[in-house]
# Entry
Amino acid sequence: MNDMASRLRIAARMANIEPFEVMEIQTLAREVEAQGRDVVHLEIGEPDFTTPRPVVEAAKRALDSKPMFYTSAMGLAELRSAISRFYRDRYHVDVPASRIIVTAGSSAALLLAFGVLLDPDDEVLLSDPGYPCNRHFVRTLGGVPRLVPVGPETRYQLTAGPARRHWTDRTRIAMVATPSNPTGTMVTPEEIAEMACLCRDKGGTLVVDEIYHGLVYDDEIGPRSAPGRQARSAAEAGEDVIVINSFSKYFQMTGWRLGWMVAPPHLVRDIEKLAQNLFISPSTLAQHAALACFEPETIAIVEERRAELDRRRRYLIPALEALGFGVPVVPQGAFYVYADCSRLTRDSFAFARELLTKAGVALTPGKDFGQNEPERHLRIAYTQPVARLEEAVARISQFLGKP
Ligand SMILES: Cc1ncc(COP(=O)(O)O)c(C=O)c1O
# Structure
């Protein structure tokens, strides 16, 4: 260690902030590509689609005609109203614009939600496996993530029974993501209602991450409506539920950094104060662009892409099963398969590295998503066209020495 480094103090909390393993895989993938070899990227959490044209055009028009000053910390009034209408039209639930806070991606919404609810040492119940950033948001705020192991019996979701068993005097929040990252599985509206009831009884708050809403392929369960069926949001479960969403996934705007939150009325003012201080305002350009998301033209584009993701899903799941992977619960949404690789390896991390360096296929090892048997799981993102998925399957097959 040099002199300067030894004198610099780093906060103790940093010891508990883990790196994203998927980044390590991406770095390795770049090294493999630098050697002139082709890599099929199934590790990345964003599809290959670019932002829909009407959204890009709206951004260009806004750049030419609107001043790019800060907006209110809560977001543009027009956009908050458009999101409110979206809840009415798609979910048949009345969410006034006053409860909608536009944020820098759902990441900022999650930080704000945890920020207004947690004191040091307060606990948050999270599913394991689950989205890794949540536990790090909680730790950054001095809270304690309580990882609840979940498996196929609850579709890898945190439900009211296990949540009740893990609830302690320090629990303040229970969190659900539907569809989930990394499993693509969903909770039913009834399960959400039970979780909301539990949180109410215990004096805690339910936070529901709906960032993959819209990217749902099976209608039996959850929000995606078949013709004549009604889509459902956790916003219907009560004003006291915090709902998180984003323009990143369904509207394919990951890099624009725009999301939103539906907040309980009694928290709105505190969230506003925190948002003013942490972020001043979400991106003005991204907000003007996002106004075009709710236009029928854009919805038609993203719905066509949803159908394409479903085609990829329908190809990939049986192909993985034929290779020897287990897919105990069919993912209904998002663009991930959380596959059990225990018949093929005892160490998913070593397997992912070897598969990448020897066969040129990048996958994410379970390690990123918690401590619940990560060594026997891999997340495979169907964010590439079917032809590339076929190529990946052929390479994995060869790697495994299959005929
Ligand atoms: C479950 C989940 N929540 C939240 C996020 C954060 O997304 P963003 O900040 O782009 O809205 C992600 C990103 O992959 C995610 O998978």
Summary: The two ends are 52 Å apart (CA to CA). Confidence is low (pLDDT under 50) at residues 220-229. The first helix runs from residue 3 to 7. The chain has 13 helices and twelve strands.
